[in-house]
Design goal:
alpha/beta, 259 residues, globular, seven-stranded parallel β-sheet, binds nicotinamide-adenine-dinucleotide, Rossmann fold, 7 helices
Length: 259
């Protein structure tokens, strides 16, 4: 699949994770200039132009990363806010510090990232035949609440609405920048493996494989999403193939949230 992203400068957060690494791999295949950022170390197989250490909850960290990109590349065509965490637990079992950490990593990060990157995105859009693009990874949980995930659901609903507000604001200010969110259902990933382990403990020892079967049965496609399927939607929103798509939610969920 060719999305015409050759030589576009793209920053991807959470690049060491399952979805982030799929996004980076597909962007590299498109010959985009991929700047990967994560709090975790660079995986050996990462085939990217730059690997930058970034704690997405740090305003100073964001300023440094954007300054580095401006200095090395002079432009930023696409920002992908993908870093995230999924603490699971009952409301009563969720500590205030855990709630705040979830909101910080999943929502503050998107606010800080867009705020730091907007001047460079705006300059890039103004100097290009195409719009710069922000792609924020939300979740099916933005739209469909599930038990034992209140902090995560709240954080991802906030990402969706924050994205829409900023997407509309960009155009109202005359910026040539679009912003959209991607909403995957449960992805075949370490994050889901860990969630199932935690559900197993919370539910008093329900076998993980029984929980996995129930999760799959809940998905209309009767399978989980592949990281590459999420990545393809990110590339679509990053590219001119989605030129008229702004302040929108792209659901990669096989119809889960349409029910
Ligand atoms: N896995 C799923 O089923 C699923 C479904 C819907 C949405 N999502 C969302 O997709 C995104 C990626 O998920 P994933 O499955 O690849 O998870 P993952 O745990 O494999 O990857 C998340 C990455 O974010 C990084 N990260 C965490 N805290 C950070 C911080 N403070 N600063 C910088 N980086 C940080 C981690 O190091 C990791 O590399 C997340 O936002 C997640 O909420 C995942």
């Amino acid at each position: 699949m060719n999305f015409g992203l050759k030589s576009r400068v793209v920053l991807v957060t959470g690049a060491a994770g399952n979805i982030g690494s799929a996004i980076c791999r597909q962007l590299s295949q498109e010959q985009a200039i991929v700047i990967a950022a994560d709090i975790s170390p660079r995986p050996q197989q990462a085939n990217v132009a730059d690997w930058l250490h970034l704690d997405v909850t740090s305003e100073a960290g964001w300023a440094e990363v954007i300054a580095t990109i401006a200095q090395r590349h002079g432009r930023l065509d696409v920002l992908v806010n993908n870093a995230g965490i999924a603490p699971m637990g009952t409301l009563e079992g969720t500590g205030y510090d855990e709630w705040r950490r979830c909101l910080a990593v999943n929502v503050d990060s998107v606010f800080l990232g867009m705020k730091a990157a907007t001047p460079l995105l705006r300059e890039t859009g103004a100097a290009s035949a195409w719009f710069a693009s922000v792609v924020n990874i939300a979740s099916a949980s933005s739209n469909r609440a599930t038990a034992m995930a209140s902090a995560y659901a709240a954080s991802k609903a906030a990402v969706a609405q924050l994205t829409k507000a900023v997407g509309i604001e960009y155009l109202s200010l005359g910026y040539r920048v679009r912003a959209n969110s991607v909403h995957p259902a449960a992805v075949q990933s370490d994050m889901i493996d860990q969630i199932l382990q935690r559900y197993s403990v919370i539910t008093g020892g329900t076998p993980v494989e029984d929980l996995r079967k129930a999760m799959i049965a809940d998905h209309p496609m009767r399978r989980l999403v592949e990281p590459d399927e999420v990545a393809r939607s990110v590339l679509f929103l990053a590219s001119d193939a989605s030129a008229y798509v702004n302040a929108s939610e792209v659901h990669v969920d096989g119809g889960l949230t349409a029910n």
